[in-house]
Specification:
Length: about 230
Protein backbone atom coordinates (compact mmCIF):
# COMPACT_ATOMS: atom_id res chain seq x y z
CA UNK A 1 0.00 0.00 0.00
CA UNK A 2 1.52 3.35 -1.04
CA UNK A 3 -0.73 5.74 0.89
CA UNK A 4 -2.55 5.03 4.16
CA UNK A 5 -4.69 7.51 6.08
CA UNK A 6 -6.08 6.46 9.46
CA UNK A 7 -8.43 8.32 11.80
CA UNK A 8 -7.54 11.69 10.32
CA UNK A 9 -9.08 14.74 12.00
CA UNK A 10 -8.64 18.39 11.09
CA UNK A 11 -10.37 21.51 12.40
CA UNK A 12 -10.04 25.26 12.00
CA UNK A 13 -10.83 28.22 14.25
CA UNK A 14 -11.74 28.53 17.91
CA UNK A 15 -14.84 29.20 19.99
CA UNK A 16 -17.79 30.27 17.87
CA UNK A 17 -15.74 30.00 14.66
CA UNK A 18 -14.60 26.42 15.36
CA UNK A 19 -15.23 24.06 12.42
CA UNK A 20 -14.34 20.36 12.35
CA UNK A 21 -13.62 19.65 8.69
CA UNK A 22 -12.29 16.07 8.80
CA UNK A 23 -13.86 13.74 11.35
CA UNK A 24 -11.82 10.56 11.34
CA UNK A 25 -11.01 9.79 7.69
CA UNK A 26 -9.63 6.37 6.72
CA UNK A 27 -8.44 5.45 3.24
CA UNK A 28 -5.70 3.53 1.47
CA UNK A 29 -4.40 3.84 -2.10
CA UNK A 30 -2.26 1.32 -3.94
CA UNK A 31 0.99 2.30 -5.63
CA UNK A 32 0.69 3.49 -9.25
CA UNK A 33 -3.12 3.70 -9.12
CA UNK A 34 -5.49 6.59 -9.76
CA UNK A 35 -7.97 7.55 -7.04
CA UNK A 36 -10.76 10.13 -7.22
CA UNK A 37 -11.96 12.00 -4.12
CA UNK A 38 -15.49 13.37 -4.47
CA UNK A 39 -17.96 15.24 -2.31
CA UNK A 40 -20.01 18.41 -2.08
CA UNK A 41 -18.41 21.76 -1.30
CA UNK A 42 -17.38 21.77 2.34
CA UNK A 43 -17.10 17.98 2.57
CA UNK A 44 -13.36 18.17 3.27
CA UNK A 45 -11.93 17.10 -0.11
CA UNK A 46 -9.34 19.85 -0.51
CA UNK A 47 -8.47 19.81 3.20
CA UNK A 48 -7.75 16.08 2.96
CA UNK A 49 -5.55 16.67 -0.09
CA UNK A 50 -3.68 19.47 1.68
CA UNK A 51 -3.08 17.28 4.75
CA UNK A 52 -1.73 14.45 2.59
CA UNK A 53 0.44 17.01 0.79
CA UNK A 54 1.84 18.35 4.07
CA UNK A 55 0.37 21.81 3.41
CA UNK A 56 -1.96 21.64 6.44
CA UNK A 57 -1.09 20.31 9.89
CA UNK A 58 -3.43 17.63 11.20
CA UNK A 59 -5.09 17.49 14.63
CA UNK A 60 -5.16 13.74 15.04
CA UNK A 61 -4.53 10.57 13.08
CA UNK A 62 -1.92 9.10 10.79
CA UNK A 63 -0.81 9.67 7.20
CA UNK A 64 1.78 7.26 5.80
CA UNK A 65 3.16 7.81 2.29
CA UNK A 66 5.56 5.19 0.93
CA UNK A 67 6.27 4.11 4.51
CA UNK A 68 6.93 7.63 5.82
CA UNK A 69 4.67 8.89 8.62
CA UNK A 70 4.18 12.59 7.92
CA UNK A 71 1.95 13.60 10.84
CA UNK A 72 4.19 15.19 13.44
CA UNK A 73 6.96 16.16 11.01
CA UNK A 74 8.50 19.60 11.43
CA UNK A 75 7.99 22.31 8.80
CA UNK A 76 11.45 21.63 7.42
CA UNK A 77 10.82 17.88 7.28
CA UNK A 78 7.48 18.46 5.54
CA UNK A 79 9.24 20.64 2.99
CA UNK A 80 11.70 17.81 2.32
CA UNK A 81 8.79 15.35 2.00
CA UNK A 82 7.02 17.55 -0.56
CA UNK A 83 10.18 18.14 -2.54
CA UNK A 84 11.15 14.45 -2.66
CA UNK A 85 7.75 12.82 -3.15
CA UNK A 86 5.01 15.11 -4.39
CA UNK A 87 3.72 16.94 -7.42
CA UNK A 88 0.80 19.38 -7.16
CA UNK A 89 -1.72 20.39 -9.83
CA UNK A 90 -4.35 22.99 -8.98
CA UNK A 91 -7.38 24.42 -10.77
CA UNK A 92 -5.48 27.69 -11.18
CA UNK A 93 -2.20 27.19 -12.93
CA UNK A 94 0.09 29.48 -10.87
CA UNK A 95 2.61 29.80 -13.71
CA UNK A 96 5.35 32.41 -13.46
CA UNK A 97 4.24 35.02 -16.05
CA UNK A 98 7.70 36.25 -17.06
CA UNK A 99 9.11 32.75 -17.64
CA UNK A 100 8.60 30.69 -20.79
CA UNK A 101 6.91 27.30 -20.74
CA UNK A 102 10.30 25.58 -20.72
CA UNK A 103 11.61 27.81 -17.93
CA UNK A 104 8.47 27.31 -15.81
CA UNK A 105 9.07 23.58 -15.99
CA UNK A 106 12.83 23.77 -15.44
CA UNK A 107 12.39 25.69 -12.18
CA UNK A 108 10.81 22.62 -10.57
CA UNK A 109 13.31 20.29 -12.20
CA UNK A 110 16.04 21.91 -10.10
CA UNK A 111 14.31 20.66 -6.93
CA UNK A 112 15.31 17.05 -7.49
CA UNK A 113 18.38 15.04 -8.41
CA UNK A 114 16.29 12.63 -10.51
CA UNK A 115 14.24 14.81 -12.90
CA UNK A 116 12.47 13.39 -15.91
CA UNK A 117 13.90 14.20 -19.32
CA UNK A 118 12.60 17.69 -20.19
CA UNK A 119 12.43 17.18 -23.95
CA UNK A 120 10.60 13.86 -23.54
CA UNK A 121 8.15 15.50 -21.14
CA UNK A 122 7.48 18.41 -23.50
CA UNK A 123 6.80 15.94 -26.28
CA UNK A 124 4.59 13.68 -24.13
CA UNK A 125 2.46 16.65 -23.03
CA UNK A 126 2.23 18.20 -26.49
CA UNK A 127 4.21 21.30 -25.49
CA UNK A 128 7.29 20.95 -27.70
CA UNK A 129 5.99 23.58 -30.12
CA UNK A 130 5.09 25.98 -27.31
CA UNK A 131 8.16 25.76 -25.07
CA UNK A 132 9.39 29.29 -25.85
CA UNK A 133 6.00 30.96 -25.30
CA UNK A 134 4.99 32.84 -22.16
CA UNK A 135 1.88 31.82 -20.17
CA UNK A 136 -0.24 34.71 -21.52
CA UNK A 137 0.35 33.38 -25.04
CA UNK A 138 -1.19 29.99 -24.19
CA UNK A 139 -4.75 28.72 -24.09
CA UNK A 140 -6.19 27.49 -20.78
CA UNK A 141 -5.56 23.88 -21.76
CA UNK A 142 -1.97 24.61 -22.72
CA UNK A 143 -1.40 26.41 -19.42
CA UNK A 144 -2.77 23.39 -17.55
CA UNK A 145 -0.47 21.12 -19.56
CA UNK A 146 2.44 23.32 -18.52
CA UNK A 147 1.33 23.10 -14.88
CA UNK A 148 1.19 19.30 -15.20
CA UNK A 149 4.64 19.19 -16.78
CA UNK A 150 5.99 21.39 -13.98
CA UNK A 151 4.60 18.96 -11.39
CA UNK A 152 5.91 15.89 -13.25
CA UNK A 153 9.46 17.07 -14.00
CA UNK A 154 10.37 16.17 -10.41
CA UNK A 155 9.36 12.57 -11.16
CA UNK A 156 7.04 12.55 -8.11
CA UNK A 157 5.81 9.34 -6.53
CA UNK A 158 2.46 10.95 -5.74
CA UNK A 159 0.58 13.50 -7.86
CA UNK A 160 -2.11 15.53 -6.05
CA UNK A 161 -4.67 17.14 -8.38
CA UNK A 162 -7.21 19.62 -6.99
CA UNK A 163 -9.96 20.20 -9.59
CA UNK A 164 -7.50 19.89 -12.53
CA UNK A 165 -10.29 20.38 -15.11
CA UNK A 166 -12.45 22.82 -13.13
CA UNK A 167 -11.58 25.85 -15.24
CA UNK A 168 -11.66 24.09 -18.61
CA UNK A 169 -14.31 23.37 -21.25
CA UNK A 170 -15.41 19.79 -21.91
CA UNK A 171 -13.15 19.22 -24.92
CA UNK A 172 -10.04 20.49 -23.14
CA UNK A 173 -11.01 18.60 -19.97
CA UNK A 174 -11.00 15.37 -21.95
CA UNK A 175 -7.55 16.17 -23.35
CA UNK A 176 -6.19 16.79 -19.84
CA UNK A 177 -7.74 13.59 -18.45
CA UNK A 178 -6.31 11.56 -21.34
CA UNK A 179 -2.97 13.15 -20.54
CA UNK A 180 -3.17 12.19 -16.86
CA UNK A 181 -4.16 8.67 -17.88
CA UNK A 182 -1.18 8.45 -20.21
CA UNK A 183 1.20 9.80 -17.55
CA UNK A 184 -0.09 7.24 -15.05
CA UNK A 185 0.59 4.41 -17.49
CA UNK A 186 3.97 5.69 -18.63
CA UNK A 187 5.52 6.74 -15.33
CA UNK A 188 3.51 4.68 -12.79
CA UNK A 189 2.64 7.84 -10.85
CA UNK A 190 0.14 7.37 -8.02
CA UNK A 191 -2.59 10.01 -8.40
CA UNK A 192 -5.22 11.54 -6.12
CA UNK A 193 -7.75 13.64 -8.03
CA UNK A 194 -10.24 15.89 -6.24
CA UNK A 195 -13.16 16.68 -8.56
CA UNK A 196 -16.84 17.60 -8.66
CA UNK A 197 -17.24 15.86 -12.03
CA UNK A 198 -19.03 12.52 -11.67
CA UNK A 199 -17.80 11.26 -15.04
CA UNK A 200 -14.14 11.29 -13.99
CA UNK A 201 -14.67 8.62 -11.36
CA UNK A 202 -15.35 6.09 -14.13
CA UNK A 203 -11.74 6.25 -15.42
CA UNK A 204 -9.89 5.61 -12.14
CA UNK A 205 -9.07 2.54 -10.05
CA UNK A 206 -10.64 3.76 -6.80
CA UNK A 207 -13.36 6.23 -5.77
CA UNK A 208 -13.62 7.83 -2.31
CA UNK A 209 -16.75 9.86 -1.51
CA UNK A 210 -16.68 12.31 1.39
CA UNK A 211 -19.67 13.81 3.18
CA UNK A 212 -19.46 16.09 6.20
CA UNK A 213 -15.81 15.23 6.77
CA UNK A 214 -16.23 11.45 6.70
CA UNK A 215 -15.79 8.72 4.10
CA UNK A 216 -19.27 7.58 3.04
CA UNK A 217 -18.23 5.39 0.10
CA UNK A 218 -14.93 3.80 -0.87
CA UNK A 219 -14.95 1.38 -3.77
CA UNK A 220 -12.91 0.08 -6.68
CA UNK A 221 -13.92 0.11 -10.33
CA UNK A 222 -14.04 -3.40 -11.72
CA UNK A 223 -14.00 -2.00 -15.25
CA UNK A 224 -12.53 1.41 -15.97
CA UNK A 225 -13.78 3.61 -18.80
CA UNK A 226 -10.96 5.19 -20.85
CA UNK A 227 -10.88 8.98 -20.59
CA UNK A 228 -11.51 9.25 -24.34
CA UNK A 229 -14.90 7.57 -23.85
CA UNK A 230 -16.15 9.59 -20.88
CA UNK A 231 -19.43 11.44 -21.35
CA UNK A 232 -20.84 14.64 -19.80
CA UNK A 233 -17.47 16.26 -19.03
Amino acid sequence: MYLEVKGLKKSYGEGGSYVEVLKGVDLAVEKSEMCVIQGASGSGKSTLLHCIGGLDKTDYGSISADGLEICGLSSEELSDYRRANLGFIFQFYNLVPNLTVKENIQVCGYLTDRPLDLEELLDTLGLAGHQDKFPQQLSGGQQQRCAIARALIKNPKLLLCDEPTGALDSHTSRDILELLERVNRKYGTTMLIVTHNNSIRQMVDQVVCLKDGQVRKNYRNEEKVPAAQLEDL
